[in-house]
C-alpha cells in the first residue's frame, strides 16, 4: 500500500454492487470483494451465504485521500444502499448483507460516527450500519472479482447494478474517474 493511501471496507449488500460502484470513483486505487467481521478463518462464499460464519460481504477499498475524501466515499456509500434496513438489501437477506463500515484509522471512525449522527438527525428511519475496526479480511474467490464488468449482461447486473451505476453517474459525476467509463 502506498504511504499516501488509506484502506476502508464497506458492506452494503452484495459485493458485486459495491465493487462496481466504488471502482468508478477517482482516487480509488483498488477495490477487492471479500469477507470480514466474522469468527471463522478463511470463509468460503458458501459459508458466508449460509449466515453461519458471521462474516459480511464487503469491499476493501484502497484510496488516495488527496484525490477523493473519506467524506466523499461515505456520501457515495450511504447513497448507493439502504442503511436503515437491518441485514437486508433488496432481495438479498441475511447478516452477510448487513450495512457495515470497517475503518482502519481513528480519524475514519470519528468521521463515520459524525456522518451517521448527521444522517440520523431528524430522520424518520435510523441508520443501522455496523461500525467496527477492520480485522482479518479474506479476499473473495476469483470469480467474484470484477463480477459486473465481466457479466454486465446478466439479469441481476442489468436489474440491480446498472441502475446504481446510472444514478452514480447522474448524481456524483464529479467524483468519477471519467464520465465515459460507465
UniProtKB/TrEMBL annotation:
It catalyses: L-methionyl-[protein] + [thioredoxin]-disulfide + H2O = L-methionyl-(S)-S-oxide-[protein] + [thioredoxin]-dithiol; [thioredoxin]-disulfide + L-methionine + H2O = L-methionine (S)-S-oxide + [thioredoxin]-dithiol. Its EC number is 1.8.4.11. InterPro entries: Met_Sox_Rdtase_MsrA_dom (IPR002569), Met_Sox_Rdtase_MsrA_sf (IPR036509). Gene3D superfamilies: Peptide methionine sulphoxide reductase MsrA. Residues 8-158 form the Peptide methionine sulphoxide reductase MsrA domain. The active site is at 14. Keywords: Oxidoreductase. GO terms for molecular function: L-methionine:thioredoxin-disulfide S-oxidoreductase activity; peptide-methionine (S)-S-oxide reductase activity. Signal peptide: none annotated. Has an important function as a repair enzyme for proteins that have been inactivated by oxidation. Catalyzes the reversible oxidation-reduction of methionine sulfoxide in proteins to methionine. Belongs to the MsrA Met sulfoxide reductase family. This is Peptide methionine sulfoxide reductase MsrA. It comes from Candidatus Andersenbacteria bacterium RIFCSPHIGHO2_12_FULL_45_11.
